[in-house]
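Worked example

This section walks through a single chain of length 362. The input is the sequence exactly as stored; nothing has been trimmed or padded.
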Amino acid sequence: MSTPHGEVFTPAFMPVGTRAMLNYLTPADLEQAGSDIILGGNTYHMLCTPGMEVIEAVGGMHKFMGWHKTMLTDSGGFQVLSLSKKGTICIIDEQGAHFKHPLTGKIIHLNSHTSIQAQKIIGADIIMAFDQCTPETGGREAALAALDRTHRWLVLSKEEHEKNPNSAYGLKQALFGIIQGGSFRDLREESTDFILKQELDGIGIGGEVIGFDMPKTGEIIDWIRPLLPENKVRYTMGVGLHPQDLIDVVAKGIDIFDCVAPTRNARHGTLYCGEIIEQNGWLRFQGEDDHCRILIKKSIYAKDDGPIMPHCQCYTCTHFSRAYLHYLFKEGLIAYFHLASIHNIYVMQMVCSRMRELILSG
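Given that input, the structure is written out below as tokens.
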């Protein structure tokens, strides 16, 4: 992908900076780990704080965060799902979503117009159409309602974007639509057809199930893959709980993916550990257990002088032992969160690098 902030070679994993930062990581850490693209700044959270007036005053999210490479931002559609489950925090109607600010109580209106305008102020290279993320509860009726709204809101998002396809800072932005439809094949196919007719820059595959249930995620990709054009970027939203998840979706034709799990897992003491092996013409991330991880809090690591993962070249593994990380974690020291997050992000980027090498080798 060629963007105003550089080229991105796919497959590419996007670390997630929901609140205009990745917890315990600096832009330099991300670059050193091999990241060329991030999901930087969730539209809903940026509207809440610091607010669009602050982001615009400093010249956009890239300058605000100190990140000079490619950035994608999301529309706030996932918050439409997650916060609407909490009743009075978010109310959804045909005009969009109405949120109550968590601190001030001020009502925030998020719809196709405000979402696109906010993403233009954020200044991301790739922006997402406003959608309603499909819940896995509620059955077909809920999936159909979310699909219909997503399609209507997509048309409005595209109209808003096309008024000026650039960011507030004069740089070209790419608009992606999002395929919804839950776990229903006919709805997924219907949504795919609708999204493709809009002739957008790229295609997101969304819904609560994507990334959360990997067997179903793979099945959904299989349903719609024959319908997808070769020249459009394909993005599974929320995939990346485990390194193997990336390998599995790329095998099915996916280009980019994002997930909060690598850094969240790191903070809770779960560190990726395995090796990338070639198997049947493709790759597999193989470890001592099914989840390819170690739980650093376990006492067995208290005197282990080896790195988190053998042969890993991340800053953490080349400088510190499992014993030291175990000590930091048990003491609750901030250094642990930093070093653990570096490792988990590096592993995800290393997996992507190996996939790119294998693809390019034919």
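What to look for: The first strand starts at residue 2 and ends at 3.
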